[in-house]
Design a protein that fits this description.
The protein contains ten helices and seven strands. By secondary structure, it is an alpha/beta fold. Helix 7 packs across helix 8. Bound molecules: S-adenosylmethionine.
Protein backbone atom coordinates (compact mmCIF):
# COMPACT_ATOMS: atom_id res chain seq x y z
CA UNK A 1 0.00 0.00 0.00
CA UNK A 2 1.27 3.52 -0.78
CA UNK A 3 2.14 5.74 2.13
CA UNK A 4 -0.66 8.11 1.12
CA UNK A 5 -3.17 5.25 1.39
CA UNK A 6 -1.59 4.27 4.71
CA UNK A 7 -2.24 7.76 6.06
CA UNK A 8 -5.88 7.69 4.89
CA UNK A 9 -6.37 4.30 6.56
CA UNK A 10 -4.62 5.45 9.74
CA UNK A 11 -7.00 8.38 9.86
CA UNK A 12 -9.94 5.94 9.69
CA UNK A 13 -8.37 3.87 12.46
CA UNK A 14 -7.99 7.02 14.55
CA UNK A 15 -11.60 8.05 13.98
CA UNK A 16 -12.92 4.60 14.87
CA UNK A 17 -11.10 4.34 18.21
CA UNK A 18 -11.56 8.01 19.01
CA UNK A 19 -15.36 7.55 19.07
CA UNK A 20 -15.14 5.17 21.98
CA UNK A 21 -12.07 3.82 23.78
CA UNK A 22 -11.56 0.08 23.56
CA UNK A 23 -14.08 -1.98 25.56
CA UNK A 24 -15.91 1.01 27.06
CA UNK A 25 -19.14 0.16 25.21
CA UNK A 26 -19.48 -2.80 27.61
CA UNK A 27 -19.96 -0.51 30.61
CA UNK A 28 -23.18 1.41 31.19
CA UNK A 29 -22.01 3.65 34.07
CA UNK A 30 -21.50 7.39 33.68
CA UNK A 31 -18.29 8.09 31.79
CA UNK A 32 -15.19 8.88 33.88
CA UNK A 33 -16.85 8.06 37.22
CA UNK A 34 -15.28 5.69 39.71
CA UNK A 35 -18.00 3.09 38.99
CA UNK A 36 -17.28 3.34 35.27
CA UNK A 37 -13.58 2.67 35.71
CA UNK A 38 -14.09 -0.04 38.35
CA UNK A 39 -16.52 -1.88 36.05
CA UNK A 40 -14.10 -1.60 33.15
CA UNK A 41 -11.33 -3.13 35.23
CA UNK A 42 -13.43 -5.96 36.69
CA UNK A 43 -14.82 -6.84 33.30
CA UNK A 44 -11.45 -6.79 31.55
CA UNK A 45 -9.67 -9.17 33.90
CA UNK A 46 -12.64 -11.50 34.34
CA UNK A 47 -13.01 -11.82 30.57
CA UNK A 48 -9.27 -11.91 29.87
CA UNK A 49 -7.44 -13.34 32.92
CA UNK A 50 -4.55 -14.14 30.57
CA UNK A 51 -3.60 -10.44 30.46
CA UNK A 52 -2.10 -10.07 33.98
CA UNK A 53 -0.46 -13.50 33.63
CA UNK A 54 1.27 -12.36 30.43
CA UNK A 55 2.04 -8.77 31.49
CA UNK A 56 3.36 -9.60 35.00
CA UNK A 57 2.61 -6.04 36.13
CA UNK A 58 4.00 -6.61 39.64
CA UNK A 59 7.51 -7.25 38.27
CA UNK A 60 7.72 -3.74 36.83
CA UNK A 61 8.42 -1.87 40.08
CA UNK A 62 11.11 0.76 39.51
CA UNK A 63 11.37 -0.14 35.80
CA UNK A 64 10.88 2.17 32.89
CA UNK A 65 7.83 0.83 31.04
CA UNK A 66 6.26 1.98 27.79
CA UNK A 67 2.74 0.88 26.89
CA UNK A 68 1.96 1.28 23.20
CA UNK A 69 -1.78 1.79 22.61
CA UNK A 70 -3.17 2.33 26.12
CA UNK A 71 -6.85 2.38 25.05
CA UNK A 72 -9.06 3.02 28.09
CA UNK A 73 -5.98 2.68 30.30
CA UNK A 74 -6.80 -0.40 32.41
CA UNK A 75 -3.42 -2.07 31.93
CA UNK A 76 -1.67 1.30 32.12
CA UNK A 77 -3.17 1.77 35.59
CA UNK A 78 -1.63 -1.55 36.67
CA UNK A 79 1.85 -0.45 35.56
CA UNK A 80 1.49 2.76 37.56
CA UNK A 81 0.08 0.95 40.62
CA UNK A 82 2.97 -1.52 40.47
CA UNK A 83 5.46 1.30 40.84
CA UNK A 84 6.74 1.36 37.25
CA UNK A 85 8.07 4.57 35.72
CA UNK A 86 5.20 4.46 33.27
CA UNK A 87 4.96 6.01 29.82
CA UNK A 88 1.94 5.48 27.58
CA UNK A 89 0.93 6.46 24.09
CA UNK A 90 -2.15 6.01 21.92
CA UNK A 91 -3.23 7.27 18.52
CA UNK A 92 -6.38 8.84 19.96
CA UNK A 93 -7.18 11.78 22.20
CA UNK A 94 -10.06 9.72 23.67
CA UNK A 95 -7.63 7.15 25.09
CA UNK A 96 -5.36 9.79 26.58
CA UNK A 97 -8.36 11.56 28.13
CA UNK A 98 -9.37 8.23 29.75
CA UNK A 99 -5.90 7.83 31.23
CA UNK A 100 -5.90 11.40 32.52
CA UNK A 101 -9.28 11.01 34.27
CA UNK A 102 -8.39 7.59 35.59
CA UNK A 103 -5.09 8.60 37.17
CA UNK A 104 -6.63 11.75 38.68
CA UNK A 105 -9.48 9.75 40.17
CA UNK A 106 -7.07 7.38 41.94
CA UNK A 107 -4.61 10.15 42.71
CA UNK A 108 -1.84 8.38 40.81
CA UNK A 109 0.93 9.79 38.66
CA UNK A 110 2.52 8.43 35.50
CA UNK A 111 5.73 9.71 34.01
CA UNK A 112 4.21 10.65 30.65
CA UNK A 113 1.20 9.85 28.47
CA UNK A 114 0.39 11.41 25.15
CA UNK A 115 -1.07 10.99 21.70
CA UNK A 116 1.51 9.38 19.42
CA UNK A 117 1.78 6.89 16.59
CA UNK A 118 3.23 3.42 17.18
CA UNK A 119 4.91 3.65 13.76
CA UNK A 120 6.88 6.71 14.92
CA UNK A 121 7.48 6.38 18.65
CA UNK A 122 8.66 9.71 20.06
CA UNK A 123 11.43 8.17 22.19
CA UNK A 124 15.17 7.68 21.79
CA UNK A 125 16.68 4.28 21.01
CA UNK A 126 17.25 1.96 24.01
CA UNK A 127 15.02 3.86 26.48
CA UNK A 128 12.74 1.30 28.19
CA UNK A 129 13.19 -1.81 30.34
CA UNK A 130 9.78 -3.13 29.26
CA UNK A 131 7.75 -2.29 26.16
CA UNK A 132 4.22 -3.68 26.25
CA UNK A 133 1.40 -3.56 23.75
CA UNK A 134 -1.89 -5.49 23.90
CA UNK A 135 -4.08 -5.69 20.83
CA UNK A 136 -2.80 -2.61 19.04
CA UNK A 137 -0.28 -2.92 16.22
CA UNK A 138 -2.46 -5.15 14.00
CA UNK A 139 -4.66 -2.04 13.63
CA UNK A 140 -1.94 0.24 12.28
CA UNK A 141 -1.27 0.06 8.53
CA UNK A 142 2.42 -0.84 8.86
CA UNK A 143 2.50 -3.42 11.65
CA UNK A 144 6.12 -4.38 10.91
CA UNK A 145 7.23 -0.75 11.30
CA UNK A 146 5.43 -0.52 14.66
CA UNK A 147 7.07 -3.76 15.81
CA UNK A 148 10.50 -2.47 14.79
CA UNK A 149 9.81 0.79 16.65
CA UNK A 150 9.00 -1.21 19.78
CA UNK A 151 12.31 -3.06 19.43
CA UNK A 152 14.20 0.20 18.78
CA UNK A 153 13.05 1.95 21.97
CA UNK A 154 13.63 -1.08 24.21
CA UNK A 155 16.96 -1.23 26.09
CA UNK A 156 19.41 -4.06 25.47
CA UNK A 157 18.35 -6.95 27.75
CA UNK A 158 14.95 -5.30 28.06
CA UNK A 159 11.68 -7.20 27.63
CA UNK A 160 9.12 -6.80 24.87
CA UNK A 161 5.59 -8.15 25.31
CA UNK A 162 3.13 -7.80 22.47
CA UNK A 163 -0.24 -9.36 21.71
CA UNK A 164 -1.44 -9.33 18.14
CA UNK A 165 -4.31 -11.17 16.51
CA UNK A 166 -3.75 -14.72 15.25
CA UNK A 167 -5.14 -15.62 11.84
CA UNK A 168 -5.35 -19.40 12.35
CA UNK A 169 -7.82 -19.04 15.17
CA UNK A 170 -11.36 -20.03 16.06
CA UNK A 171 -12.54 -16.44 16.17
CA UNK A 172 -11.13 -15.76 12.69
CA UNK A 173 -12.81 -18.94 11.39
CA UNK A 174 -16.13 -18.00 13.01
CA UNK A 175 -15.86 -14.51 11.51
CA UNK A 176 -15.27 -16.07 8.10
CA UNK A 177 -18.33 -18.35 8.50
CA UNK A 178 -20.47 -15.36 9.48
CA UNK A 179 -19.28 -12.84 6.90
CA UNK A 180 -18.20 -15.05 3.98
CA UNK A 181 -19.90 -18.46 4.07
CA UNK A 182 -23.31 -17.37 5.36
CA UNK A 183 -23.29 -14.46 2.90
CA UNK A 184 -22.67 -16.89 0.00
CA UNK A 185 -19.19 -15.59 -0.84
CA UNK A 186 -16.86 -18.34 0.42
CA UNK A 187 -14.08 -17.13 -1.91
CA UNK A 188 -13.46 -14.15 0.36
CA UNK A 189 -10.33 -14.78 2.44
CA UNK A 190 -10.11 -14.62 6.22
CA UNK A 191 -7.72 -11.66 5.84
CA UNK A 192 -10.26 -9.78 3.71
CA UNK A 193 -13.03 -10.47 6.22
CA UNK A 194 -10.94 -9.29 9.16
CA UNK A 195 -9.77 -6.20 7.27
CA UNK A 196 -13.37 -5.20 6.59
CA UNK A 197 -15.33 -6.43 9.63
CA UNK A 198 -13.06 -6.71 12.64
CA UNK A 199 -13.12 -3.48 14.66
CA UNK A 200 -11.42 -0.59 12.84
CA UNK A 201 -10.95 -0.84 9.05
CA UNK A 202 -7.73 -2.53 8.02
CA UNK A 203 -7.38 -4.92 10.97
CA UNK A 204 -4.91 -7.73 10.26
CA UNK A 205 -4.15 -11.05 11.89
CA UNK A 206 -0.86 -12.92 11.64
CA UNK A 207 0.63 -16.37 11.86
CA UNK A 208 3.58 -17.23 14.08
CA UNK A 209 5.72 -17.64 10.93
CA UNK A 210 4.83 -14.14 9.76
CA UNK A 211 5.81 -12.68 13.13
CA UNK A 212 9.18 -14.47 12.97
CA UNK A 213 9.66 -13.06 9.44
CA UNK A 214 8.86 -9.52 10.64
CA UNK A 215 11.54 -9.94 13.29
CA UNK A 216 14.25 -11.05 10.85
CA UNK A 217 17.39 -8.92 11.28
CA UNK A 218 16.01 -7.33 14.44
CA UNK A 219 18.28 -7.36 17.51
CA UNK A 220 16.02 -9.64 19.54
CA UNK A 221 15.94 -13.11 20.97
CA UNK A 222 12.55 -14.75 20.69
CA UNK A 223 11.59 -15.98 24.14
CA UNK A 224 8.16 -17.23 23.20
CA UNK A 225 5.50 -16.82 20.53
CA UNK A 226 2.31 -18.73 21.12
CA UNK A 227 -1.43 -18.30 20.68
CA UNK A 228 -3.97 -18.62 23.48
CA UNK A 229 -7.70 -19.21 23.29
CA UNK A 230 -9.58 -16.13 24.36
CA UNK A 231 -13.02 -15.19 25.63
CA UNK A 232 -13.84 -14.36 22.00
CA UNK A 233 -12.79 -17.79 20.62
CA UNK A 234 -14.89 -19.46 23.32
CA UNK A 235 -17.92 -17.43 22.14
CA UNK A 236 -18.67 -16.58 25.75
CA UNK A 237 -20.82 -13.66 24.62
CA UNK A 238 -23.23 -16.13 23.02
CA UNK A 239 -25.55 -18.84 24.31
CA UNK A 240 -24.54 -22.27 25.57
CA UNK A 241 -25.02 -23.96 22.17
CA UNK A 242 -22.44 -21.69 20.53
CA UNK A 243 -20.08 -22.27 23.43
CA UNK A 244 -20.40 -26.05 23.03
CA UNK A 245 -19.68 -25.74 19.28
CA UNK A 246 -16.60 -23.67 20.07
CA UNK A 247 -15.47 -26.19 22.70
CA UNK A 248 -15.71 -29.08 20.21
CA UNK A 249 -13.93 -27.09 17.52
CA UNK A 250 -11.11 -26.22 19.88
CA UNK A 251 -10.70 -29.86 20.97
CA UNK A 252 -10.58 -30.96 17.31
CA UNK A 253 -8.19 -28.21 16.24
CA UNK A 254 -5.67 -28.31 19.06
CA UNK A 255 -6.87 -26.04 21.89
CA UNK A 256 -4.68 -22.99 22.39
CA UNK A 257 -3.08 -23.55 18.97
CA UNK A 258 -6.18 -21.95 17.49
CA UNK A 259 -6.41 -19.05 19.93
CA UNK A 260 -7.05 -15.48 18.75
CA UNK A 261 -4.41 -13.87 20.92
CA UNK A 262 -0.87 -14.38 19.68
CA UNK A 263 1.44 -13.65 22.60
CA UNK A 264 4.94 -12.53 21.67
CA UNK A 265 7.72 -12.24 24.21
CA UNK A 266 11.15 -11.02 23.14
CA UNK A 267 14.39 -9.95 24.72
CA UNK A 268 16.37 -7.18 23.09
CA UNK A 269 19.99 -8.11 22.41
C1 LIG B 1 -8.25 -2.91 20.54
S1 LIG B 1 -7.75 -1.37 21.23
C2 LIG B 1 -6.60 -1.94 22.48
C3 LIG B 1 -6.36 -0.90 23.53
C4 LIG B 1 -5.74 -1.45 24.82
N1 LIG B 1 -4.38 -1.90 24.62
C5 LIG B 1 -6.60 -2.56 25.35
O1 LIG B 1 -6.16 -3.72 25.30
O2 LIG B 1 -7.72 -2.28 25.79
C6 LIG B 1 -6.69 -0.71 19.97
C7 LIG B 1 -5.99 0.58 20.34
O3 LIG B 1 -4.92 0.79 19.42
C8 LIG B 1 -4.80 2.16 19.19
N2 LIG B 1 -4.04 2.35 17.95
C9 LIG B 1 -4.37 1.99 16.71
N3 LIG B 1 -3.41 2.34 15.85
C10 LIG B 1 -2.44 2.96 16.56
C11 LIG B 1 -1.20 3.56 16.24
N4 LIG B 1 -0.76 3.63 14.99
N5 LIG B 1 -0.47 4.08 17.25
C12 LIG B 1 -0.90 4.05 18.52
N6 LIG B 1 -2.07 3.49 18.89
C13 LIG B 1 -2.83 2.95 17.92
C14 LIG B 1 -6.24 2.62 19.12
O4 LIG B 1 -6.37 3.99 19.27
C15 LIG B 1 -6.87 1.82 20.26
O5 LIG B 1 -6.81 2.53 21.48
Amino acid sequence: MSSENDEILKNEVHNFWNQSACGTFLVDKEKYTLEYFEDLEKLRYSMQPEIPIFAKFAESEGKKVLEVGVGAGTDFLQWVRSGAIAYGIDLTEEAIEHVKHRLNLYNLKAEQYAVADSEHLPFADNTFDIVYSWGVIHHTPDTQKALHEIVRVCKPNGTIKVMIYHRHSLLAYFFWIKHALLKFRPWKSISWILWNYMESKGTKAFTKKEVIKMLENQPVEIINIHPVLSYYDRLERFNKLFQIISKFASILLGGNKVGWELLIELQKK
